Amino acid sequence: MKVAILGGTGKFGTALTRRLASTDDVVIGSRDAERARAAAAELGVRGASNEDAVDGVELVVLAVDASAALDTARALRAAIGTTPVLSVASELTVKGERSLAERVADELDAPVSAGLHTVAASTIGEEQDALVCGDDDDAKALALELAGRAVAGRAIDAGKLRNARALEGLTGVIVAVNKRYKAHAGIRLTGV
Ligand SMILES: NC(=O)c1ccc[n+]([C@@H]2O[C@H](COP(=O)([O-])OP(=O)(O)OC[C@H]3O[C@@H](n4cnc5c(N)ncnc54)[C@H](OP(=O)(O)O)[C@@H]3O)[C@@H](O)[C@H]2O)c1
Asked: Which CATH class is domain 2-181?
């Protein structure tokens, strides 16, 4: 799959890129094209400015710092157009009724899915499930395909985008569990 990972210079984007580099055509995006190219060279993929990175890809992964997700989506609205977007962002302090992913969707003309919130950068590729939700079936299918390669377990369709609020909230749960048990927890659904 041709995929742009915006914020691909960061902790999560770097880990996801490393995982996908051998199976997907990945381009790392950054606010600074030079920084993207330097990070990409180390991972054997391409790098570009966020705006150029989204050009011609099948899926955009919005993996910038969560506090910058809305501004980044707003700034890239024209460049992203109708290309499907996967938002992985979680706010540890929930702001308002609606999820960050739903608010990202408000800023874009593209169909937005949300997922991978329980998959820590340090546990990408490990045996765990990845939950993905979204309203557009085709866009969600792409996000699920990518999520399925990001973990050794399964990518699970978690329903409509309104469920993003619950998925985003799981990040805080995982962080609390990790602190309590000095662990690197992931999620595994039973009965599916
Ligand atoms: N870390 C995890 O384990 C984990 C797990 C699941 C989901 N997530 C989600 O993944 C996303 C990235 O997390 P992370 O830990 O990788 O974050 P991070 O390292 O702090 O940031 C990722 C990238 O965001 C870009 N960025 C930072 N501030 C920005 C701003 N004001 N405007 C635009 N871009 C900005 C930076 O790229 P440039 O400076 O190169 O532009 C940075 O390398 C977050 O939304 C987080 O909720 C993280």
From this structure: alpha beta
